[in-house]
Amino acid sequence: MKRTFMAAGLAVVLSACGSPEKGADAAQEGNPFLTEFTTPFGVPPFDKITLADYKPAFLQGMEEQKQEIDAIVKQRSVPDFENTIVALDQSGRLLKRVSSVFYGQNSVNTNDEMQALSRELSPLLSKHNDDISLNPALFARVKEVYDNQAKFNLDKEQKKLLEETYKDFVRGGANLPADKQEKLRELNSGISMLQLTFGQNMLKETNDFQLVIDKKEDLSGLPESLIANAAKAAKAAGMDGKWLFTLHNPSVMPFLQYADNRALREKIFKGYINRGNNGNDADNNKVVRDLITLRLEKAKLMGYDDYASFVLEDRMAKTSDKVYALLDEVWTPALAKAKMELADINAEIKKEGGNFEAEGWDWRYYFEKAKKAKFDLDENQVRPYLKLDNVRDGAFYVANKLYGITFTPVNNIPLPHPEAQAFECKDKDGSYLGILYFDFFPRASKRGGAWCGTYRSQTYQDGKRLGPIVTIVCNFSQPAEGQPALLSADEAETLFHEFGHGLHNLFKDVHYYGVSGVPRDFVELPSQVMEHWVFEPEVLKVYAKHYQTGEVIPAALIEKLDKSGKYGQGFATTEYLAASLLDMDYHVLKEIPADLDVMKFENETLGKRGLIRQIPSRYRTTYFNHTMGGGYTAGYYSYIWAEVLDADAYEAYKETGDIFNPEVAAKFRTYILTPGGIDDAMDMYKNFRGKEPNTEPLLKNRGLK
């Protein structure tokens, strides 16, 4: 649902809060959520918020929104757009405010108490949401406005808000009979709790694994920076003199890439792919089985054959057939390319005198050797030129060249974590656009991956645009002692990707919460299109400077990067598509056996498509938080769907001969980044490009054609 009453992640939030009387009481209690934020730019006062502040603010936020809904329902005025649709859209401001901070902090700096509170709040918030979605008197007013909309003289944005509001009620069960609504409440509560449990189990499994090395010879092949970080991690864990490696990506991935010790590669690889599948108290097998069962029950209750049909109705793809058509079109050439890469890897093994065939824990290690043999390129040649601050400034440079915007460091404002950075973003005319936070490095209290969210979404207040408070969160390699953070090529690409999401949030200009979102399979377009600039020679020459000498990255190294750029796309595309297919296969099921073995299902569904054993799905079932934790359920295909769009969109720049063409950039901002969800997604794309996209640029971009 685009109209969200309670955030399941980083929510939108508005500065206004409860009534003056309640605000005054709260001020005496010292709860920061229940008074106006007086911080610069209205950012949350992270330094003053305590764990004890959340629950009272949630409870009061729910109560205030309940009163606001009651006021809408009980008014004697005939339902119209302002007194019903806008009033509903603007309700729950306090709840949005506390949700944004709590779920944001629970992702970047959690602890046992926060996780326990999230479990306590889950059923309360599920019930609160259902009390609104299933309120018959409220739906009657919404339906009356919807049925008589011709008489209200609505503009395009208002019409879209009305359409989305009505649709959300219908998809939320408003048309179901009372007994089925009661069942829907049960299912929603169960799904919410299972998704929460899945994510908490995954974090625990990731944090619990440790590979401790006490012999220096076992570090052979590893970069010095990785060794230094492992020593620092061991010391922090009370194991001074040893080296500690974890399942966080900046630790496990370079270990698999460079460690000469094959047995240790196997150990950490198996630890990684078996998260949530260890038969312990954090095992996710039953959680998955119960979750997909409840999702299917919900879909059938709502009149759909399977859960994917329910979800996709509200996406660009519309049907699972269209999703599978795209995935299958890319799968065949990707798998063929992966088999060619496997042959190269096995050749490297034989070259070294090995008498074994590559396994999953060998892929990254021998692929690195194969790439060096083919292109004379080692990732460690590139890292010295990818100083984190420089890459960040390179993203700022691209945004300035495209749109004229600027980013200025902001000091002395509260930060979501002490390691975070803050920047003020201004438009080309000097007007304020919003605040952008960065939080770059992993820690045990932070979930894995990279994402962009908001502590306050863009909105309007008293007729004036209220700028968003955006946060970009990553898990990049920690800098070695006394050294700056140096990124891998993949990490640099990730920074540009999340920055693209950030620009989408910063440029958005809508008046209502209900039209601020875009379909899941469109949302990755603004992020993925930014990746195209990261290794453009013109851009590299600006930001890719050696961290010690300041030397600009040599042209010869840029040429090697360019030539090797498509090598490895067989592996990367296949592991991604495997996860996308797995996600869809679970959610097109029309019956789920009570004794379903989810790992057997995974092996069979991917095995029948010919996935080679050396390439596991990017996310195996028991740690596939994108789909089992919610957010990308029946939607992990969205990245490749959006890549069709972004590859075609970048062609619009290249066709002009200028990757910073101001006219193309202006159109992209106007038609893609600014409107939120006011227009249908494909209409937005066609407004920008003048035509629908095709898959040719994607296949060419990935080297699959």
TrEMBL record:
<dbReference type="GO" id="GO:0046872">
    <property type="term" value="F:metal ion binding"/>
</dbReference>
<dbReference type="GO" id="GO:0005829">
    <property type="term" value="C:cytosol"/>
</dbReference>
<feature type="domain" description="Peptidase M3A/M3B catalytic">
    <location>
        <begin position="255"/>
        <end position="703"/>
    </location>
</feature>
<dbReference type="InterPro" id="IPR024077">
    <property type="entry name" value="Neurolysin/TOP_dom2"/>
</dbReference>
<dbReference type="InterPro" id="IPR045090">
    <property type="entry name" value="Pept_M3A_M3B"/>
</dbReference>
<keyword id="KW-0482">Metalloprotease</keyword>
<keyword id="KW-0479">Metal-binding</keyword>
<comment type="similarity">
    <text>Belongs to the peptidase M3 family.</text>
</comment>
<dbReference type="GO" id="GO:0004180">
    <property type="term" value="F:carboxypeptidase activity"/>
</dbReference>
<protein>
    <submittedName>
        <fullName>M3 family metallopeptidase</fullName>
    </submittedName>
</protein>
<dbReference type="InterPro" id="IPR001567">
    <property type="entry name" value="Pept_M3A_M3B_dom"/>
</dbReference>
<dbReference type="InterPro" id="IPR034005">
    <property type="entry name" value="M3A_DCP"/>
</dbReference>
<dbReference type="Pfam" id="PF01432">
    <property type="entry name" value="Peptidase_M3"/>
</dbReference>
<keyword id="KW-0862">Zinc</keyword>
<keyword id="KW-0645">Protease</keyword>
<dbReference type="GO" id="GO:0006508">
    <property type="term" value="P:proteolysis"/>
</dbReference>
<keyword id="KW-0378">Hydrolase</keyword>
<dbReference type="GO" id="GO:0004222">
    <property type="term" value="F:metalloendopeptidase activity"/>
</dbReference>
<dbReference type="InterPro" id="IPR024079">
    <property type="entry name" value="MetalloPept_cat_dom_sf"/>
</dbReference>
